């Protein structure tokens, strides 16, 4: 029996009959509506990543990246149902990983969530599913242009279980070691951006370079800047739900998170674009969009803790450091086709460190109930050490575990990820999907000679056509 009623104001009241005397917990329909709206906003970010990545690639692989977004969401939705939510957010979790208390979403309905007593567990569950699906989508972009699509389903399921769920548990679960230590990560600096960016680095090293990479830079130019801009629009729009929704209530703290998100993204886009302009003296739309994404990743952990002036610094630092971090692949010698490590792992680390410095008790208290000791601005200097430890743990754990998953799959028949050279030359869309992002005929004419009605590749004469 579900112990819920509605008071005269329309608020939902849950009665915990297990206590003596029974305790009433009041849920606000407005808070529930805001979190569910934020869920839809974050959902939109997943195809947004697909369009952003697709535009950065060559035309013959454009559809596969958009496809990856939807198939990742579907795979993680089932993983989250089976045990993902329980491993990350069970009440009886260890400092590192949860148990199967909520296997198959058992016991997930009207009781208060572990994230906030102001929303039911069911609402919190579906909201967190969007984070769980968005994170591996960031990482699988590293498979672009040189990976089989079928084994990706197994990789996403395994990676979500072995990498994302433990990091989410130690960061956000009340029993997690980073949470208990005092780490401040509002919306996913370590669980989302550091974990996915570092996984992309491991994937890039495992797969090796694409054919021709490093010899013909023009051949690897983004094929559709419009897709890049469209993906950025989806991501910016959804990020208000990503950061603002993490307040789990429609309150002043959620509004502040939205404000600093907008400021940081704007500063980051302009900064990256200006750094690119100094080299080519051109105003790059792709550069601007790259800076926006890097800055949004950086502000994510601090969005519920920092003020508007600090948000400008988050954007400028991310737009600068992440721009130069894209050069790492040339010095180290790996092929990160979409610069995911630079744009997410580096940005997430920047965000964690700046959050430790600029977090304020007053900002966190905008919701009326959150109390923190703050960062360096509030004289709490140990916060920086905690955040460095958390960032290093996320970097090391994600890289090691992702590498293990990749090499285990490498030796399992049917799960090897790297495609043959011929498939890479023709394109993933042609060989793995048999479908294309653009006109079928035009692409086939690029790949092989046209067969005319006379059965040859020679255009028929007027007499032959009239015969």
Automatic annotation (TrEMBL):
The keyword Repeat does not apply. Keywords: Ammonia transport, Membrane, Transmembrane, Transmembrane helix, Transport. InterPro entries: Ammonium/urea_transptr (IPR029020), Ammonium_transpt (IPR001905), Ammonium_transpt_CS (IPR018047), NH4_transpt_AmtB-like_dom (IPR024041). It is found in: Cell membrane; Membrane. Residues 33-438 form the Ammonium transporter AmtB-like domain. The chain crosses the membrane at residues 32-53, 65-85, 119-140, 152-172, 192-208, 224-242, 254-275, 282-300, 306-328, 340-359, 394-412. GO terms for molecular function: ammonium channel activity. It comes from the Eukaryota. SUPFAM superfamilies: Ammonium transporter (SSF111352). It is a multi-pass membrane protein. GO terms for cellular component: plasma membrane. Belongs to the ammonia transporter channel (TC 1.A.11.2) family. This is Ammonium transporter. It comes from Agrocybe chaxingu.
